Amino acid sequence: MPAMNSQLLMIEDDHRLAQMVGEYLGQSGLHVTHMADGASGLAQLQDNDLPHLVILDPMLPDMDGLEVCRRIRALQGPAAQVPVLMLTAKGDPMDRVIGLEIGADDYLPKPFEPRELLARIRAILRRREAGVQPAAATLLRFGSLEIDRDARTISVAGEPAELTSYQFDLLVAMAERAGRVLTRDQIMEAVRGRELEAFDRSIDVHMGRIRAAIEQDPKSPRRILTVRGVGYVFAKQQD
Q1: 3 state DSSP class of 221
Q2: 11 and 110 co-located in one domain
Q3: What angle do CA 215, 77, 117 make, to 5 degrees?
Q4: Does one domain contain both 14 and 124?
Q5: Which of 86, 121, 127, 176 is the most exposed, fewest CB within 10 Å of its CB?
Q6: Closest Cα partner for 164 from 218, 123, 106, 217?
Q7: Tell me: the pLDDT tens digits for 69-97?
């Protein structure tokens, strides 16, 4: 279970919902700071201590929440890596795909069970904590690709590549098992999120984003290869 007193930022224009969520999560040691619009939420990220996670509603009064997520990912430094959980009334699969493609780590449609929200938050925080343990303080190198598990950074030919926290964990899980063909279930189990993945295509969306970040030609990948009917394999020999 993640450490108590984790700090969360909720960007949500429904004050009643925000109060309910804050009270419920507070019972589990999660402190929620609420901002009612995108501009205030972005300012909170840049002006104060970083939260451990952002709960974001795409339906905001001043700007599209998806744009807020894009701007979070475009921030400089650690703020760009803060995990984002989308919480929205939109349940269309394409809305979920778009949310994941622009950098969200997870997606939970309204109405939702507070227990599921808590479980998803805990899963994201567990992945985050697992990624910063001292045992992971080594480099993984595959040709020009370098993955620093301690600093949680990626570079290709010396140039930094940007991934979400969840995508970084997925990449590390595959790189640590280079040469092994992994099913989607095995990949998600490796980052402790299998039981909380409600959208089967989400793993493919994340793989597409990872390829866009680390492949010279994402349409003809040489690092993460698709094994038809099975899953993916992270190639040992790449460049």
Answers
A1: coil
A2: yes
A3: 85
A4: yes
A5: 176
A6: 106
A7: 989 988 877 888 899 998 876 656 666 67
